[in-house]
# Entry
Amino acid sequence: MLDFDVEMEQFAQIKVIGVGGGGNNAINRMVESGLRGVEFLAVNTDKQALFLSKANMKIQIGDKLTKGLGAGSDPEIGQKAAEENRDEIAQALKGSDMVFVTAGMGGGTGTGAAPVVAAVAKEMGILTVGVVTKPFTFEGRKRMAQAERGIAQLKEHVDTLIIIPNDRLLQIIQKNTSMVEAFKMADDILKQGVQGISDLIAVPGLVNLDFADVKTIMLNTGIAHMGTGRASGENRAEEAAKQAVHSPLLETSIEGARGVLLNITGGADLGLLEVNAAAELVQKSADPEANIIFGAVIDESLNDELLITVIATGFDRGLGSINIPTAKKPEFSSFFGNKNNGTMSSLNNTSSLSNNANTQTTTNNANPVTKPTTNPMADMLDNDLDIPAFLRKSNKK
# Structure
């Protein structure tokens, strides 16, 4: 006789790992929003930032190296710090089926440590998704080049990678939008994507999906599009689907995608014709031969609203993907400045993993950094952000 006494522990275990200042901030905002069905882990070199974190698990990395004072916008320090606590990271990830590694790229801890965290997860056989932001242009060429190298390195050690350029925020916000509200918009992509996957797995639906379906779409697929849409009213299905397909904060779309995970969540009045309209729009945008996995969930708290989450992967060259530089091997020793100090030896031993996530994306050489920025705002931000936290505080006294 089958036992149908199902508990949460029997569902796939999902963890969201925020690495560095940007990743920790994203986790704090997700905790505040009431994101359910996942566990949060904050990883940082900055002891003070970890103290303020709302994550239920925290790991301070590189205490011997940084003394808890941050990486000073040096990715190599971030990478070494993560290596110092590699075993502790692995212990925290035990039992996970899927992890989202989120970080703000361009600084020290997020850029350097996120690829290490992702590599640890991949070694453990965990489905690993990277969700990262690129810095604003006004933050300077140095920080942008550092971010692009970090993204290229991270791509080698995740199954799926989603990139959110902060510059896109400038195109969609209103004049009176606060910085807090603007960054919440970027966090919503990660939050809704994680929630959509969590709901598909853990919430009984009209059309049920399981973790195997999620893995089918996201395992070893490279650059991905993760969009959400929310609408109400007469044409809510089409409007929500359009928002999800053409997410304004991403450089990607679902055009040419060969794998699509589509989740539609609505109230008790969710209609079959509405579901069909949304699914048709997604189908027309993807590759004609795309594998589309569909789920529908009833959430009576939505009332008249309809929420659609689309995760698209498996892009052909030139379709749906974006150009990012290719990381050169050996992995980190050449990656962060050709420093001959033997760093990242354990990641080099995982070279077999690096072939998994780079087969379906287009790449080109990174733009060379030839001139320092002449933007005063960029200089001010870059100079400030390249100084460790404890020095910035002493300078301001």
